[in-house]
Amino acid sequence: MSATQTTTYREAVKQAIREAMHRDSRVFLMGEDVGHYGGCYAVSKGLLAEFGPERIRDTPLCESGFVGAGIGAALGGMRPIVEVMTVNFSLLALDQIVNTAASLLHMSGGQFNVPLVIRMATGAGKQLAAQHAHSFEGWYAHIPGLRVLAPATLEDARGMLWTALEDPDPVLIFENNTLYNMEGMLAEDAGPVDIDTARVRRPGRDLTLITYSASLFKCLDAAKILAEEGIEAEVIDLRTLRPLDDATYLASIARTHRVLIVDEGWRSGSLSAEISARIMEQAFYDLDLPVERLCSAEVPMPYAKHMEEAALPQVDKIVATVRRMMHHG
Amino acid sequence: MNGLNKEQALRHLRQMLLIRRFEEKSAELYSAMKIRGFLHLYIGEEAVAVGVMAALTPEDAVVATYREHGQALARGMSAASIMAEMYGKVEGCCRGRGGSMHLFDATTRFYGGNAIVGGGLPLAVGLALADHMQGRQRVTSCFFGDGAVAEGDFHESMNLAALWKLPVLFICENNLYAMGTALRYTEANQDIAAKAAGYGMAAAAVDGMDVQAVEAAARAAVAHIQAGNGPYLLECRTYRFRPHSMFDTELYRTKEEVEQWKQRDPIELLAGRLREAGLFTEAERVALEREVAAEVEASVAFAEAGTWEAVEDLTRFVTTERRA
Predict the structure, then answer these.
(1) CATH code for position A236
(2) Residue A206 to residues A55, A282, B34, B121, B197, Cα–Cα distance (Å)
(3) What CATH number is attached to the domain comprising A32?
(4) How many domains does chain A have?
(5) Structure ipTM
(6) Rounded to two decimals, what is the model's pTM?
(7) Residue in A66, A96, A147 nearest the CB of B160
(8) How do residues A131-178 score in pLDDT, each as one tens digit?
């Protein structure tokens, strides 16, 4: 058993970046305020002094320009990590991400792959209102050619980046902004993890909770409360949103026969809708009752604390929904 | 023009003629429904691609637009691989996945074939950034139209390239119309070269119908970049003789205007200059036309003889195929 240390999600991401920079001279970090400011969420604080301004590269405020430059640099043999300050800003680079990064390999008949990693903060919970706090990862998971990751745990925050940098194609990493301060124990020798599979984070026989990112911890809290009532919920962390690892959640449903999907995205046309459809297609006869979903209210994220909380999936709602589902028999 | 180098001029003439005849044949094949999708012809603008390419080395990179047959041919991609691509055949440069608007070629460092107006500019900045960071002495050339100048990507890329002093040669092919809307309806300041000053970038405007002038200007721009002075904006003032695409009824310009520009046809301009210098005979012109026609015909034969990619391969090239 290797030694562990107390760390934060923020520190785990920073260590992952630092390690990648040491490991491969082609790796560099580029984005708004990543250098002199230290990163909007302080993820890259200290890295400018360690690696210098060429490799910890502050950019002007031009998401399309610097994401596109990241694509070009990847084509030119570099391994860029592009940081987009927050998911809503990534819409300014949507053209580059979808029309170029995701399409280039195909348009060129297999000639030009784009080994680019884009990191961005996502999610609500910090009263950042309607232009800083949405969950668009489900949108990106719609796009062929992209790999979409949502690290929730310290191990994944630490380990997904290197594996993503080794991927020959574009990878998007979504870091929920409410997780940066999360503290926990992490192995001192923690290293790369796979970016293909989902994980069972808590085993249970009665019902499957499928979730990802910050909602994982809400589901784990809910499972704890439910366990006191004798309901054993199995909690699945998707980890990779594209391509989805169907096998892990389908195997769980074959055991529990009940499923609730908890997704911070809006319900209509969402990732939860996609997973629900896949369950219908592949596990219909395993189900004792219809698939249910808990998503964000279909409203631009409000500022007021009580309204923001009401808009998001919460532990009490998860518990109440599971209780109701269990009483269906 | 003084110092007319016959060999070089004939090479330019041959390339321009190849682009012209290749595209005339493409238009014909479009009408015959052999080529589908959108087809944007470069006819009239040949001097720009040919002049600029003459100033580049094989190590340099090219980023172009959806009107890129000319750049692709001038860069040295084979007419056959381009024609097969437009036929949608697997022998095409992109296996028929791209078509006319998306020509790519790794061996000549030809990075498309970008059909989002302005979308290629950040890509060029990134390619140059990679060269800069890896200490390689290469230039990335980036072609775009006057329409792209209105896009945010133009301004973002000009700023990034100048800020980081990257080796990018921006080439604006100003043909006066963004599709069918004249520059005067879209740009507050129609002097495109002047916009470089806002970024502290060197720039020049050149007669885009004169291949020798374009080449000279491109060589000067490349020398400026290679001397470590950062990027350069070269505005080539040119004109598209044909409609924007095959679905354009040309309501936005007069026949007189088109005819006037045709008086400055880049091919006839150079051919005339050579004739006047006594370096180009009628027999040579006939021979050149025959040679080019044979190459175009061969490209059509190659495309006709090509095969269709197996439908089972439909979802290939979405992600990189890993070796087992």
Answers:
(1) 3.40.50.920
(2) 50, 19, 60, 55, 68
(3) 3.40.50.970
(4) 2
(5) 0.95
(6) 0.96
(7) A66
(8) 998 999 999 999 999 999 999 999 999 999 999 999 999 999 999 999
